[in-house]
Amino acid sequence: MEENSLFSPEIAPYQPMTAYAQLIRHLQETDHLGAAARLLQWDQETGMPAGGESHRADALSTLAKLIHERTVSAEFADLAAKATARASGPDESRQMELVNRDLDRARKIPSRLVEETTRATSLAQQVWARTKREQDFKTFQPHLEKVVELKREEGSLLAPDTGTAYDGLLSDYERGMDTSDWTRLFDELERELPGMVSEIVERQKSTAERLDGIAALKGPFPKDAQMELNRRLAEALGYDFGRGRLDLSAHPFSETIHAGDSRITTRIDESELTGSVYSTLHETGHALYEQGLPEELAGTPLGMYCSMSVHESQSRLWENLVGRSDAFWQELWPVACTACPALEQVAMEDWIAHSRRVKRSLIRTESDEATYNLHVLVRFRLEKAMVLGDLQVADLPGAWNEAYRNMLGIEPPHVGLGCMQDVHWSAGLFGYFPTYTLGNLLSAQLYRSAAKAGATSDRATLLSWLRANIHAKARRFETPDLIEQATGERPTARYFLAHLRSRYLG
User: Fold this and answer.
1) Catalytic residue among 92, 116, 255, 283
2) Is 190 in a helix, a strand, or coil?
3) Kind of pairing between the strands at 261-266 and 246-248
4) Does residue 53 carry a catalytic annotation?
5) For the residues 276-299, what does the mean pLDDT come to?
6) Residue 209: CB partners within 8 Å, gap ≥ 6?
7) Which residues 6+ apart lie within 8 Å of 423 measured at CB?
8) In what order do the strands lie in the sheet with 261-266?
9) CA-based max dimension of the chain
10) pLDDT digits (tens, 9 = 90+) for 199-241
């Protein structure tokens, strides 16, 4: 009788999965639930019918509950303990450090709070999108009050022994930096930036008056033409549309559903082109980071981005250091004119000057790179006050207007251009805003090091440098260590301020 091939000595015997392999499978399966939630969230912001609001909130809250329960389950805790004990090599050790850190965080938050917060933020985002257009803060107010209440509870559970609820929320976005650290950073920038902004505005005064007289800069720029230009610009930066897409939303954002699917959105104003162009370049920078993360680590803590500040450094680098440069438009101006024929009546030099115009404006996402951090400073102080109970949500519009008068010398005519302009608070992202400023600082520091390495001669070379020094490192290091490896220095504001002086006052 012929020997059964199943028992042939050439066939390797069955090897049971190691505890680490089982843990990775559990993490990736949990991330599959997260991918479903992210897809529902993306759809909610880009095309869901209004009638789906409450049911979508229920679906998202159920998924959040399931993800949380898998994360804090006894099965997962047992796998984590066994995998930690047997971890070998730097990647496995770092993976387990991150797993245990995330597990410790998850254990502090009850499933009830996860489910309730997800439902509240889902509804709040949908109400925000509608009431922002209608300039109706009163209808939005109870939803924001509920979100603040829930995030205050969450922050209190995450806070260190001697810290505040706001410290707890900040820790989710930039590990190791608390309220006092961020306060010192913003105080330093506040000492420098308002005076610099005044000097730049005065220097640009005659150019600004001339630009105001160029009718073609005011469009009209049809939606389809803008979207075509934005697709061409995103592709020119290296964005892979085979692994992403561009859509419209009330607030521009980037969302990675899972490896191989990193999406971006923008918004359109047919009387103004720079808003959609620079929002698209910004979100493309985020997506380039996601598309450059190591795919073999997808769905695990180690395979994620380093931090939100580093993520923001990528978007601001491409938006400002590259996207507002002479070289960028010298190459892509014909593309812009082909997509938007109205630009044929504009000199390229005037478009570049228009894109670099510094002014005291109301909208953060459309602000220039010199005033941008002042917009973030306002949000940092207001959200801190709301979380700590020093500012009631009902008083937010007035507090916002006062802050803008003091910081930027202007006041919003209505809440849609004021305290309701950003989606972050309705989404429960308290503690996120400060990372925008650190990301700004890091963008200039990274670009300077890339230039020293000869990697800024073209966009492909720059992207390769970022892929090697930032993207491929994923979450192997904390922010200060990653930046020091890439630039030779710890994070500093020095190069950002030097960049502003060179571009605008040099």
Assistant:
1) 283
2) helix
3) parallel
4) no
5) 97
6) none
7) 125, 128, 129, 250, 251, 253
8) 246-248, 261-266, 254-258
9) 97
10) 999 999 999 999 999 999 998 999 999 999 999 999 999 999 9
